[in-house]
Each structure stands twice: as C-alpha cells, then as structure tokens.
C-alpha cells in the first residue's frame, strides 16, 4: 500500500513535466521559463518532506497517507483551469508539490515493520514507487491525446480511490515509538546529527539526479534529438523504469555489502557515463545506452543511501531524518533543470550540464568510499545506532 500510494502521488507530482513542451508552445515560454514550470513542484515537494516526515513520526502513516493523497487531488484538478496562464500554472505547481511529500511517510512506515537485516530490500521495494514518474511520462501524454483535461481527471480519481483504501489498509506497527517532543525540537535534533547532512548530500546526487531527469529528460530529448512529445515521454518513462528496477537492487546489495561501497560504485558509473553523454553521442545506440546506464547507477545509489539511513537512525527519528534527507534529494532535482535550461539558452548546448553532473557524481563516489564506510550498522532491533565518530559527532 505504501508503494502504491507513493507511485500515485509521484505521478501527480510529475504531471506537468510530460506536457511541458505543450505548455511551452501554448504559453510561448522560453527554455528557462519552461524549466521553472517543471521545477517548482519539485522544490515544494522536497521542502514539504521535512514537516511531513516529522508529522508521520507523531501521527503515523495511517493518518498521513490518506490525508496527503486526498489533499493532492485539489492541485491536480486546478491544473485544468490554470492551463492558459503561466502565473496560474506556477501557483498550482507550487500546490502540486504536496504530492512529492509522501516519500517521508512511507520510509518510516516500512522501516518500522522490518528488522535491520532486511530493511535495505524492503525500502528499495517501497522506493519503486518513484516509478510514478515512469507512469506519468508514458501515460500522461497518451491520455492527453484523448482529451487535454483527461489526465488530470484520471489521476484525481485514482488518488481519491487510494485515499479511501489507505484508511482501511495502511497499518502502523502497534508498538512503534511515538515521540512526545515538539515538531521543532525533533527536527532540530535530527538536523544536529552530522550523518543527516552527509546522507543528504549523497541522496541529493542520487535521487536528485533521478528527479532532474524525470522532469527534464522529455524536454532534453525533444530539444536536442528532435523527438515528438509522445516519443520523448516514452523514452523518459523507460529511463524512469530502469531507476525503479535498480532501486531495490541497491537496497538488496546493501543488505549484503556495506551500503557505502554500493553507493560509491553506483555514483562512479554515473560519473563515467555523464562524460560520455556530454560529447553528444547519437541517440541510437550511444545516447540510449549512456542514459540507461546512468539510470541504473542513480537508482542503485538511491536504494543504498536509504539503507544507510535505516542502519544509523533511531526508529523514533526515522521520519524526521527521512524528511530532511528526502528534502535534500528533491532539492537536488530542483536545480539541474534550471541549470540545463539556462545553459542551453546561453550556449545552445547541454554538454556543460552533463560535465557538472559527472563532477558531482565523482565527488559523491569519493566521499561515500572514503568517509561513509566508517559508519557501522545498528547493533540490535530498536537499539541506539552504533555509529562511528563520523556519525556521532555534531557540527
């Protein structure tokens, strides 16, 4: 149920991106304006994970999942009257960011039901819900061919159905610890842990890369490789599908190998393939292979980073830490579309953007291997995290 809810709200969160070129032509937008339109929901959804994660620690996923799913229906339907105004679209995109916050609900829910040795795979399976981006990329433009308002109606109905089912089928672990401290106190405690920010930086590269490609890849393929919107959306959906498949693989490997090693290897692959794509290879087969291999690396890294989160975070703080780490991951996806749009407008090329991605991925690879290997897993179920000085030291 957590995975399904994550997928549906992620589809809603990503509704604008597959239709970005259509909005661009309709509203006569520049490349940067189009990039901003698809990036606003990412920003709001990312920052919103911080309070939503802390609220999940307090009230549980049984309350938060149906609540957020139901509230997301409002901006989804508002996309219909807003389509003729750029300002209105930005405002609705701001509200649509609510759909991106459910990640911080599902992580503490799933984390509480599994022992430490199995959390990597379990969280990876939940992470497959980010396949909502693939659903959006593939189905949204095709549904729109039968009616420009139809995708929003379909997603709204799906969210309503899920919200009703979640009330009855989502169950919090009965003995889950419920924090009594205030929201600000819990967020402050999570924010003072150095490991929170170390994991945030790695997740901003891994998951941020996925989000950035999810929202901007259709535009990139249409602009650079001259694909039509439907074909571009299909190929972007293929990219997202690969990230979905490899996320649980990253978690599964992390149950058997230290997740820092898995993260380092995955980001090293991304760094290499980003350089290849910076040289603008033909889409078939060079560009396709490079993009799909990057998708595999980013998906694997996303799964392994949250295997680290589950190992070193006390259960009562999982939601708060998840909110911060998830927010940084989403913010990692907010900046690249703006950078890519600005670079293309200025230089008529995307190569600089891919080289920047390579630099960041290489930095993450080195940091994960050289620094994060010193973090040791929790010694026992429900016990305090058994971490090195790297994790325990406060800034």
Would you kindly provide a written description of the structure presented here, covering whatever features stand out?
The protein has helices at 2-13, 20-27, 31-59, 61-82, 86-96, 103-113, 116-127, 132-144, 150-169, 183-192, 194-225, 229-256, 259-278, 283-312, 318-347, 351-370, 389-392. It has 395 residues and is mainly α. 79% of the residues lie in helices and 0% in strands. It has 17 helices and no strands. Helix 1 packs parallel to helix 4, helix 4 (61-82) runs antiparallel to helix 9 (150-169) and helix 12 (229-256) runs antiparallel to helix 13 (259-278).
Task: Give a topology summary.
Elements lengths: L1 H12 L6 H8 L3 H29 L1 H22 L3 H11 L6 H11 L2 H12 L4 H13 L5 H20 L13 H10 L1 H32 L3 H28 L2 H20 L4 H30 L5 H30 L3 H20 L18 H4 L3
Helix pairs in contact: 1-4, 1-8, 1-9, 2-3, 3-4, 3-5, 3-6, 3-11, 3-15, 4-5, 4-9, 6-7, 6-15, 7-12, 7-14, 8-12, 11-12, 11-14, 11-15, 11-16, 12-13, 12-14, 13-14, 13-16
The largest sheet is:
none
N-to-C span: 38 Å
What would you call the shape? Answer: globular
Spans of at least 5 consecutive residues whose pLDDT stays below 50 are 377-395
Q: Summarize the amount of helix as a percent range.
A: over 70%
Strand content: under 5%
Radius of gyration (Å): 20 Å
Distinct helical segment count: 17
SSE pattern, N- to C-terminal: HHHHHHHHHHHHHHHHH
- Structural class by helix and strand composition: mainly alpha
For the secondary structure, the number of strands is 0
What does the average pLDDT come to?
A: 82
């Amino acid at each position: 149920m957590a995975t399904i809810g994550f997928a549906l709200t992620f589809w809603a969160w990503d509704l604008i991106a597959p239709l970005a070129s259509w909005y661009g032509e309709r509203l006569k937008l520049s490349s940067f304006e189009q990039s901003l339109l698809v990036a606003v929901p990412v920003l709001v959804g990312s920052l919103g994970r911080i309070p939503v994660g802390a609220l999940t620690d307090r009230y549980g996923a049984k309350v938060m999942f149906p609540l957020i799913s139901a509230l997301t229906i409002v901006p989804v339907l508002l996309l219909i009257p807003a389509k003729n105004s750029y300002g209105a679209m930005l405002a609705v995109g701001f509200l649509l960011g609510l759909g991106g916050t459910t990640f911080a609900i599902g992580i503490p829910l799933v984390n509480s039901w599994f022992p430490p040795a199995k959390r990597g795979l379990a969280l990876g399976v939940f992470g497959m819900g980010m396949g909502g981006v693939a659903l959006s990329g593939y189905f949204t433009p095709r549904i729109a061919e039968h009616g420009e308002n139809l995708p929003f109606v379909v997603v709204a109905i799906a969210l309503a159905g899920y919200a009703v089912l979640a009330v009855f089928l989502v169950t919090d672990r009965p003995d889950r610890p419920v924090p009594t401290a205030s929201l600000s106190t819990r967020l402050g405690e999570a924010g003072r842990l150095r490991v929170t920010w170390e994991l945030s930086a790695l997740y901003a590269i891994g998951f941020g890369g996925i989000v950035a490609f999810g929202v901007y890849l259709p535009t990139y393929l249409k602009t650079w490789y001259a694909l039509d919107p439907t074909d571009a959306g299909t190929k972007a959906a293929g990219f997202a599908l690969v990230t979905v498949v490899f996320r649980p693989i990253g978690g599964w490997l992390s149950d058997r190998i230290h997740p820092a090693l898995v993260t380092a290897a995955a980001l090293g692959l991304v760094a290499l393939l980003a350089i290849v794509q910076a040289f603008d290879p033909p889409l078939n087969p060079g560009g396709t292979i490079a993009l799909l291999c990057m998708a595999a690396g980013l998906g694997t890294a996303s799964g392994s980073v949250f295997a680290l989160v589950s190992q070193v975070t006390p259960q009562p703080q999982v939601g708060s830490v998840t909110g911060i780490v998830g927010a940084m991951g989403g913010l990692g996806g907010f900046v690249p579309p703006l950078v890519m749009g600005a670079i293309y407008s200025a230089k008529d090329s995307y190569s600089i953007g891919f080289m920047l991605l390579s630099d960041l991925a290489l930095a993450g690879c080195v940091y994960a291997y050289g620094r994060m290997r010193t973090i040791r897993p929790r010694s026992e179920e429900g016990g305090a995290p058994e971490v090195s000085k790297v994790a325990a030291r406060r800034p």
